[in-house]
Design a protein that fits this description.
about 325 residues, alpha/beta, Rossmann fold, two-stranded antiparallel sheet, about 10% strand, globular
Amino acid sequence: MHRRLVLGAVGLSALFDGTAAHSPPAGTTSDPRHDSRSAAPIARAPGNMTSVLRYREVEAGEAVKSGTKLRLLPVGDSITVGFLSDSDGGDGDGYRRRLEDDLSGDEVVFAGTESSGSMNDGYYAAWNGRTIQWISDHVDESLEQRPNIILLAAGTNDMNPNPSVSREGNDPAEAADRLGGLIDKMVQECPDATILVAMIIGTCSEHQAPATTEFQQLIPGIVQERYDAGHHVLAVDFTTFRNSDLRDCIHPTNQGYTIMGDYWYSFLHRIPTDWIREPVGLDPDRPDSAGSTPGYDGTFVFMSGMMASFLLAL
């Protein structure tokens, strides 16, 4: 087995389970004997843990929960789709390929109605160029597949200054409210699932960065409300993801998508194990190959919006 090193998670100072989060410096490899998960066992009672999870290195292939199938539903926009991950010899699988490799110690099934890339099980509920509200309006069929873990990363397009992309407006507080509504729908339709809500990655676009930063900071509060109400909802911190791992100030490079997979894998290991239950019902009925029909709905809208944003920047 090999360790997964997230290069962007350096110098974290926030606390989890009463211990300081720690990651080795970029480009180095830490001793697994000093893995913080071993040094400080994860608390299993909501009163002893925070609702915000931060990256910690975990050995690839460690089971998240032995004997329990993980039916994962990635939900989001083009970053979840894996947009541009088929460039420069990439496989088109976004972060999902690395996450699947990391989860070799678990039985994993990906839920969702959309697929793309080269994976046999490359499913998700994500659409290029779409906002939180659009995702919420179209995610129901995927939620009916009853995932037991949902990986939600949405809001990048809501922060775009171009109104042809951010169709409901790009006010961070209003977008956070829409995100809360999407989380509530997931809780209602999948009450047995654990929902991981991303504090989305940043951007190097000077026109989009301020709103993105404000939106990132609002997500823990939105999650905390649901967490305090007894729901299995946790925020996961992607704010340490480096802008240098972005291809176009929005989408990760191929290496960046690999790093994102490691982030999600780390966060899965931070879930209290008694929250992870056997999935409800049968696995989704699939054709032989998931990746044969790309699920890149909304690409033209997204790219035209990006072009307009670039023109605004000139």
